[in-house]
Amino acid sequence: xxxxxxxxxxxxxxxxxxxxxxxxxxxxxxxxxxxxxxxxxxxxxxxxxxxxxxxxxxxxxxxxxxxxxxxxxxxxxxxxxxxxxxxxxxxxxxxxxxxxxxxxxxxxxxxxxxxxxxxxxxxxxxxxxxxxxxxxxxxxxxxxxxxxxxxxxxxxxxxxxxxxxxxxxxxxxxxxxxxxxxxxxxxxxxxxxxxxxxxxxxxxxxxxxxxxxxxxxxxxxxxxxxxxxxxxxxxxxxxxxxxxxxxxxxxxxxxxxxxxxxxxxxxxxxxxxxxxxx
Length: 278
Fold this sequence. Notes:
- The protein is built from 12 helices and no strands.
- The protein has helices spanning about 5-20, 25-35, 45-65, 65-80, 90-110, 110-115, 120-140, 155-170, 175-185, 190-220, 225-250, 255-270.
- The model has no long low-confidence stretch (mean pLDDT about 90).
């Protein structure tokens, strides 16, 4: 019997799609939802399922930003043979995304036993939600929001890329939250910070999904729940991306900060009373 039913896959797909790119922690929300549905959060097949359905959200990014991605990838290929093309920002940006992904890959492989084990605890999720909220609020207050996407540099990409490690090690911190906060501290405006977070998430999340696919299929999750969860994640994530870009153009991240704190405190209460098993 599959560790996750098709009905549960739909719910988890919605949660993944809504939260993957919002700075509220998709991993944290997935673990909370799994706990409420009595799905073991530390089961290898469940961890694998969560990683695989992220590919649906990444596919939404690829479709939504297709023109941008096509421009950047085309510039990269042209730059491999054309010296003049290598001075263009798009060519450099493509390399920056590649370089900035290396740290999270290395840490992910080295720390996988911890990530799948002790760090998968819902207590870690709750604490990370709250601590990450403080980091996000400080970053939004400190940032001068004066630099646009065309002003990004190799240093920006590497620092923002490395910040993804925080979310990898501490589910609940939020990959989007960590990357956006780092970009804000570097004085990027909110839209540029959000778009940079999207682009840096493409290789990291796609790689994680492909890597975990064998565990999801081989350890108890059927092909049908995986397919359904991934498809639902794609549809919902596309709408979430469109909404988020409009929201950050006119608002601060304070609403996300408050939401994270509330969810973190509520989760701690549920764990402390035994309503949820950590």
